[in-house]
Specification:
The structure holds two protein chains of two kinds.
Chain A: H1 11-23, E1 26-27, H2 28-39, H3 50-63, E2 68-73, E3 76-81, H4 88-91
Antiparallel strand pairs in A: 1-3, 2-3
Helix pairs in contact in A: 1-2
Chain B: H1 2-16, H2 20-41, H3 46-57, H4 60-71, H5 74-92, H6 94-121, E1 134-137, E2 154-155, H7 160-169, E3 173-180, E4 188-192, E5 200-202, E6 204-207, H8 211-214, E7 221-222, E8 237-240, H9 242-249, E9 259-262, E10 265-272, E11 289-292, H10 296-300, E12 313-319, H11 325-341, H12 349-357, E13 360-361, E14 363-365, H13 372-409, H14 411-419, H15 424-461, H16 476-502, H17 506-511, H18 523-554, E15 565-569, H19 582-594, E16 599-605, E17 616-621, E18 629-636, H20 640-644, E19 648-651, E20 665-669, H21 670-676, E21 687-689, E22 698-704, E23 719-723, E24 746-751, H22 758-769, E25 777-780, H23 781-788, H24 790-824, H25 826-834, H26 839-872, H27 884-910, H28 914-919
Parallel strand pairs in B: 2-13, 6-11, 8-10, 18-23, 20-22
Antiparallel strand pairs in B: 1-12, 1-14, 3-12, 4-5, 4-9, 7-10, 8-11, 9-10, 15-24, 15-25, 16-24, 17-18, 17-21, 19-22, 20-23, 21-22
Helix pairs in contact in B: 2-3, 5-15, 6-13, 6-15, 6-16, 7-11, 13-16, 13-18, 13-24, 15-16, 18-24, 18-26, 18-27, 19-22, 24-26, 24-27, 26-27
Classes of the chains: A alpha+beta, B alpha+beta.
Chain lengths: 92, 921
């Protein structure tokens, strides 16, 4: 049984970072929607797959300069770029 | 760095298993709520909105798994999971687990045991400083005292003069040490002054003053020997081995500086050798005392220490860094030729020529010490290693078969797993974990087998060894070896079964049953069984050949009688007797021993039949052209021939009237007559001597049978026997003071029945003659003869053990595969029988399968066996080709085993009830 990979690895992460760069801190659903909007029908992503990725970005942020930070604000987990203004997307 | 830090984070997550789960659930709830709200806005019903949101989210489990993987250490976690699961699965089928672990334990244990011995014997460096810098002058283990070179001109042991010359002229060596080649054959008798213990016969080694310095060793206490100890006239000194100091003297510091009587001469112990040092070579009984070379004439009364011809020293040196071995070898050769060229021995023209063209020394690595023991066991250990390797291979094949069968049986389980989304790699990994776990357990149990096996091996290989420097408990290397072996078997023989088992058809799982007719054992299983059968044939035949060889050896007519005979080894020299005093001693021995109850004959001799000793001399019959042959020379008393059971076939034996002053007579053996006289010549009355000049030395008065001396296999071996006190007529009268042959080496007692307390009696009797007279070694004649076969017996017993083991494993393998095939084909056989197949035919069908495999194995095994024979033939006595009976026996045994292994499942197959078989599905 082969594994289905609809999105090339890393692409999704890049899109998340780009989204955060443009729109600022967002919650998970917001990011998912934004990606859906800009990619149109071309990209079909199970929204659930976003969360492990967000976690990965968060962990990267702990150990390096790139990545994302996640905070819980009013019961909602908000994801933002770790260092706003830094050109994270190019570093990916 | 980054990767490291992330790893650390993950590890801490894995350990603390932080509340990732909780957070994901919250985020997911939040996400779904928002998506549902959005859907509601689009006009869906609340239920539909929620459903669509869930669909959009995707597979919840997969996301959770990914999330979890991101958060922790999935590799280790799943491994632990796998191990836990594997252990559970193994516990669930205890019989399978037991059989597998036991099989492996035997295979790995046997290998580890043999490896322990090889590791200790073959791969070990001496426990000295920087052994790699040690170089030995010489490559051979010729022993012990002699003159001359090997046929190829190689020198491997040296005279004292050669040693001193080489040492002086070879600045390439930091130190060049010399050591007695044959100390194992010349024990010394030691007793501590001021104590009342009986003197003990122990191993002592005479070494050069720089011996310990060469090895870079310091004393545990006191000091080591120094050059100033090793000069003529210096007070006698000795260094005691650590083991002796610890076990015999309780590590008592007062031993230092105290005086010991070594062969009755006062010797001061100046130091204790370092712990663990067992001398310059591996021996069953290492030296207890190290004494300087220059004290040897005084202590052991040997003439050869300062004889320019006699060679008796091995040389090992520590080279300076940067010295090229090739150049050094050249220089050693040049120096040795220089030194020898100046001696009398090389004064003739032919010898000068020989010296220039042939004489040379081969340098060899000295870090392992003198390799005498290794040389004796090298080939046998290799054979045993191969045999145990084959056993392991067969054991592994069994394991693989068991795993395969188990894998097939678990097919439905694998199907379900695949249907639930397990990937193939994941399943293989799970199964591999199981097989490695099994192998690990087998390896662990194997270590226990190895420990017991090594102890048994040591006991069998070196009976009577004292303080043998080989430890049976597994060293780090052995542990690594066993561990590596188990891992290798686990992976190597687990991969194929795992791969086969993982070939799952998820659809089958849904279909329920496995009503497949294509069944039975796979090709892989069958070929494993075939290989097993072939290999076990090889081992069985080898075992048979070794057993046959041993029996042939033991049934050689030795032309002696060992029943009710006792051999008491003595050395009058160690009790302080000079050559002129021994006549009186021998008379006393004869008298006193005859007073003992049941003693019938008292023989006195230089050495006895079937002991590792020989004294060869040139022989020339008067009035014949030069023979250039060597015969063994023994001095015996009148009762000697009767005491060992050698029959006189012509003329007479030695008589009490053959005293010192009587005419000089000799008794020769039949081989002596056969080689030196024509068939029609009467040897009685003929004269012979050592060379043309001295050919009138002895008159032949009798001929005896060819009793076996030294070893049972030494054939065509000339010998002559002369009275204990007579010396060659041509010998200078004063040379008696240097004549070592005057000293008897053994007393042989013939009794009218068994005398179990004979050892004690002999000790007391000797001590009654002279308290310094000690028993060097006491044995019954039978035990002494049996010792000569100990190596052959070791080889025979072990190959038998391995052969039987291989045989049982192969039978088990064949049985397992056949039984498994029958079980798999239960439905098929049921249908066949329902359709009218006779039971007889079903039985035949199953049997045919088993027999074909066995026969294929035999077909493979016979040529392999014949091919392998050339590797073992050197260890066999008078067996040059595969013996027909042995081969036939092995083939019959394997065929019978195949009939049994195939018969049981065949009967079961025939008793299948067709109705039940079909209903069972």
């Amino acid at each position: 049984v082969s594994e289905k990979t609809d999105v090339k690895q890393g692409t999704l992460a890049l899109m998340v970072l780009k989204t955060l760069d443009v729109l600022g801190p967002l919650h998970g659903w917001g990011i998912a929607r934004r990606i859906e909007q800009i990619s149109g029908a071309l990209l079909s992503v199970n929204q659930g797959t976003l969360y492990p990725l967000l976690l990965k970005l968060e962990q990267e942020a702990r150990s390096s300069r790139s990545g994302a930070r996640r905070r819980t604000i009013a019961g909602r987990v908000i994801t933002s770029l770790r260092d706003r203004g830094a050109d994270n997307s190019r570093m990916m | 760095m980054k990767a490291l830090r992330r790893m650390w984070k993950r590890m801490s997550n894995a350990v603390t298993s932080r509340n990732g789960e909780q957070r994901l659930r919250e985020e997911m709830e939040e996400h779904l709520r928002m998506q549902a709200k959005e859907n509601l806005r689009k006009g869906m019903s609340p239920d539909e909105a929620r459903r669509q949101a869930l669909i959009k989210w995707g597979a919840i489990e997969a996301v959770r798994e990914h999330y979890h993987a991101e958060n922790g250490l999935p590799w280790i976690e799943t491994l632990l999971q796998d191990v836990r699961f594997a252990a559970r699965m193994l516990r669930k089928s205890p019989v399978f687990t037991m059989v597998a672990v036991l099989t492996l334990a035997l295979g790995i244990g046997a290998n580890a045991a043999i490896f322990t011995l090889i590791n200790a014997l073959m791969l070990k460096y001496l426990p000295v400083a920087d052994p790699k810098m040690l170089v030995r002058l010489g490559n051979d283990n010729n022993c012990c005292v002699g003159i001359g070179w090997q046929d190829n001109g190689e020198y491997s042991y040296f005279s004292t003069d050669s040693y001193e010359y080489l040492r002086k002229n070879l600045p390439e060596f930091e130190e060049l040490a010399a050591m007695q080649a044959g100390f194992a054959y010349r024990p010394v008798v030691v007793r501590q002054d001021g104590r009342n213990d009986a003197p003990r016969s122990v191993v002592g080694e005479f070494v050069s003053g720089n011996y310990f310095k060469t090895f870079g060793l310091n004393a545990t206490a006191g000091r080591v020997l120094q050059d100033r100890d090793d000069v003529r006239g210096a007070p006698f000194t000795a260094v005691m081995s650590y083991e002796t100091w610890r076990t015999r003297f309780n590590s008592d510091a007062s031993v230092l500086g105290s005086t010991f009587r070594v062969n009755t001469k006062p010797v001061t112990v100046v130091g204790i050798a370092p712990k663990g040092f067992y001398g310059d070579r591996m021996l069953p009984t290492p030296p207890e005392f190290y004494l300087p070379i220059e004290s040897m004439p005084g202590i052991a009364n040997v003439p050869y220490v300062h004889n320019s011809q006699t060679q008796w020293l091995y040389l090992i040196g520590r080279v300076r860094p940067g010295v090229s071995q090739g150049m050094l070898q050249e220089k050693v050769n040049m120096l040795l030729r220089q030194q020898l060229g100046a001696t009398d021995f090389f004064s003739t023209k032919s010898r000068q020529q020989e010296l220039k063209e042939k004489i040379h020394v081969v340098l060899s690595a000295g870090g392992g010490g003198i390799q005498s023991l290794q040389e004796g066991y090298d080939r046998q250990l290799r054979i045993l290693m191969s045999a145990s390797g084959i056993v392991l291979l067969i054991a592994c094949a069994n394991l693989a078969n068991l795993l395969l069968a188990r894998g097939m049986a678990r097919k439905p389980e694998m199907n379900v797993r695949t249907a639930l989304g397990a990937r193939r790699g994941r399943i293989v990994r799970q199964l591999l974990t199981e097989s490695v776990l099994l192998a690990g357990a087998g390896g662990l149990a194997g270590l226990a087998v190895a420990y017991a096996g090594t102890r048994m091996l040591l006991m069998m290989a070196f009976p009577g060894a004292e303080d043998m420097p080989i430890n049976a408990s597994p060293s780090a290397v052995v542990l690594a070896f066993a561990f590596g072996l188990s891992l290798l078997t686990g992976v190597l023989f687990g991969v194929a079964p795992a791969w086969v088992a993982s070939k799952a058809e998820p659809a089958d799982a849904l279909r329920g049953g496995m009503r497949s007719i294509a069944g039975g054992a796979t090709l892989l299983q069958t070929s494993l069984v075939v290989v097993q059968a072939g290999l076990s044939l090889v081992l069985l035949v080898c075992a048979g050949l070794f057993a046959k060889s041993l029996s042939k050896l033991e049934h050689i007519d030795l032309k002696l009688d060992p029943v009710n005979r006792y051999i008491v080894h003595i050395n009058p020299q160690t009790a302080g007797y000079s050559q002129r005093q021994v006549g009186e001693l021998y008379r006393a021995i004869e008298e006193r021993f005859h007073l003992l109850m049941r003693v019938e004959k008292v023989g006195i001799t230089s050495y006895t039949p079937m002991e590792d000793n020989n004294n060869g001399w040139g022989v020339q019959v008067q009035g014949k052209p030069e023979h250039n042959v060597i015969a063994s020379y023994i001095k015996v008393n009148p009762e000697y021939f009767d005491s060992v059971g050698t029959r006189v076939v012509r003329g007479r034996g030695i008589l009490p009237t053959d005293t010192v002053d009587a005419p000089h007579v000799a008794v020769v053996n039949k081989e002596f007559v056969r080689q030196l006289f024509k068939p029609e010549e009467n040897p009685i009355g003929q004269h012979f001597g050592g060379n043309v000049k001295s050919s009138g030395d002895w008159e032949i008065v009798g001929v005896v049978e060819d009793t076996a001396y030294q070893s049972a296999t030494w054939k065509d071996h000339m010998m002559y026997f002369v009275p204990t006190l007579q010396r060659p007529l041509s010998a200078a009268p004063n040379s008696i003071d240097e004549d070592e042959n005057m000293y008897a080496g053994a007393i042989v007692l013939k009794t009218s029945g068994p005398v179990p307390e004979m050892e004690e009696l002999a000790r007391k009797t000797l001590a009654g003659i002279n308290p310094n007279l000690s028993v060097v070694r006491f044995q019954t004649f039978s035990a002494q003869i049996a010792d000569q076969f100990s190596q052959a017996r070791l080889l025979s017993r072990l190959t038998t053990v391995f052969g039987v083991l291989a045989f049982l494993l192969a039978t088990l393998g064949l049985y397992g595969v056949t039984a498994y095939g029958v079980e798999r084909r239960t439905a098929e056989i049921g249908i066949r029988m329902a359709l009218g197949a006779e039971r007889r035919k079903v039985t035949a069908m199953v049997m045919r399968g088993a027999m074909v495999q066995a026969l294929l194995g035999l077909g493979l095994g016979v040529p392999t066996t014949i091919f392998c024979l050339k590797y073992v033939s050197s260890q066999l006595y008078e067996i040059k080709s595969v013996d027909g009976w042995v081969l036939a026996g092995a083939v019959i045994a394997l065929t019978l085993a195949a009939i049994v292994a195939g018969g049981i499942p065949a009967r079961r197959a025939a008793s299948i009830n067709p109705v039940q078989a079909l209903r069972a599905e």
